[in-house]
From TrEMBL:
Gene3D superfamilies in alphabetical order: NAD(P)-binding Rossmann-like Domain
InterPro entries on file: NAD(P)-bd_dom_sf (IPR036291), SDR_fam (IPR002347)
Name by which UniProt lists this protein: Dehydrogenase
GO biological process: fatty acid biosynthetic process; rhamnose catabolic process
C-alpha cells in the first residue's frame, strides 16, 4: 500500500538541492506531492548531476511540471531573493523553505587561510541568512493561514567540537541560532522555524574522509545504531517539519538525526 502524500498543494524551495541531503529531501518532497524548486551552484561540472536529477524526478512524477532548478551562488546576497522570486513565478506561492546549501573542507586550525574561512562563512551562514530572509519575506507577504515552514540544515557539529572543522562548526552553530531567533521573530506571521542536525551522513562533502576503512569503522562503532547515516535518513524528518498537520506546534526546535551519536559521545 502506498504511503499517504503529506505535502500535496505545498510549494517548497531548497538550496543546495542537487546533491546530498538536499537532493534526498527534494525527491521525498516530490513523492509526497509537493512542487519543489532547487537552487544549485551551476556551471558545466553540474550538468551530469542535473541530468541525473531530472531522470529521478521523471521516475517519481512522470514529468517535470512540479520541479524547477535555478542556478546561483548562494553566498551572494541577491541569489536567495532571485531563487525565491523564480520559485513563486513558477508555482505561485511558497510554503516550505529548506536552507541546506553548505560547504565543508577539512583543515587544521593553524592552517586555515582567510579565503577558506571567508568562503565557509559566506556560504554556510551568510548565504543561509539571506536566503532565509528572502523566503520569510515571501511567506509573511502571502499571509497564508498556515504561515509557512523554514528548516535550517545545521549539524551535530553545532553542539560538539571538531579539530579539523574550526572554520565549519561555528557556521553550523550559527544556522541553529538563526532558526531559533527566526522562530521568535516570525512567529507572529505563523511561520515555523526549526533546525535539523544531521550526524555523520555519507555525502559528497565527507566521502573522501569516510573512505578510510579504519576511520569509518571507528565512527560506526560510536553510533548506537551501528551505521553511518544515509541522505535518505534526513528526508523523513524534513517531511515532518514541513507538514503542518504533523508539526504545526513545533518551532524553534532542534532535531538531531544522528543514530544516537550525540548521546554516546564521551
Amino acid at each position: 500500500m502506498p504511503l499517504p502524500q503529506l505535502l500535496v498543494g505545498k510549494v517548497a524551495a531548497i538550496t543546495g538541492g542537487l546533491t546530498g541531503i538536499g537532493r534526498a529531501i527534494t525527491l521525498e518532497y516530490l513523492r509526497h506531492g509537493a512542487k519543489v524548486a532547487i537552487n544549485h551552484l551551476g556551471g558545466s561540472s553540474e550538468e551530469p548531476l542535473l541530468e541525473s536529477m531530472r531522470k529521478d524526478v521523471a521516475e517519481i512524477i512522470g514529468t517535470e511540471d512540479r520541479f524547477l532548478a535555478v542556478a546561483g551562488d548562494i553566498s551572494q546576497p541577491e541569489t536567495g531573493q532571485d531563487f525565491i522570486s523564480k520559485t513563486v513565478a513558477a508555482f505561485g506561492q511558497l510554503n516550505v523553505f529548506v536552507s541546506n546549501a553548505g560547504v565543508c573542507k577539512f583543515a587544521e586550525f593553524l592552517e586555515v587561510e582567510p579565503a577558506l574561512l571567508g568562503h565557509t562563512i559566506s556560504t554556510n551562514l551568510s548565504g543561509a541568512f539571506y536566503a532565509t530572509q528572502a523566503a520569510a519575506r515571501q511567506m509573511a507577504l502571502s499571509q497564508s493561514p498556515s504561515g509557512g515552514s523554514i528548516i535550517g540544515i545545521s549539524s551535530i557539529s553545532a553542539l560538539v567540537g571538531g579539530g579539523q572543522q574550526t572554520h565549519y562548526t561555528p557556521t553550523k552553530a550559527g544556522v541553529l541560532s538563526l532558526m531559533q531567533s527566526c522562530a521568535v521573530s516570525l512567529g507572529k506571521y505563523g511561520i515555523r522555524c526549526n533546525a535539523l542536525l544531521p550526524g555523520t551522513i555519507r555525502t559528497q562533502l565527507n566521502d573522501e574522509d569516510m573512505s578510510d576503512p579504519s576511520k569509518r569503522a571507528y565512527m560506526e562503532g560510536r553510533i548506537p545504531l551501528g551505521r553511518l547515516g544515509q541522505t535518505s535518513d534526513m528526508a523523513g524528518p524534513a517531511v515532518f517539519l514541513a507538514c503542518e498537520e504533523l508539526s504545526g506546534y513545533v518551532t524553534g526546535a532542534q532535531l538531531l538525526v544522528d543514530g544516537g551519536l550525540f548521546v554516546n559521545l564521551q
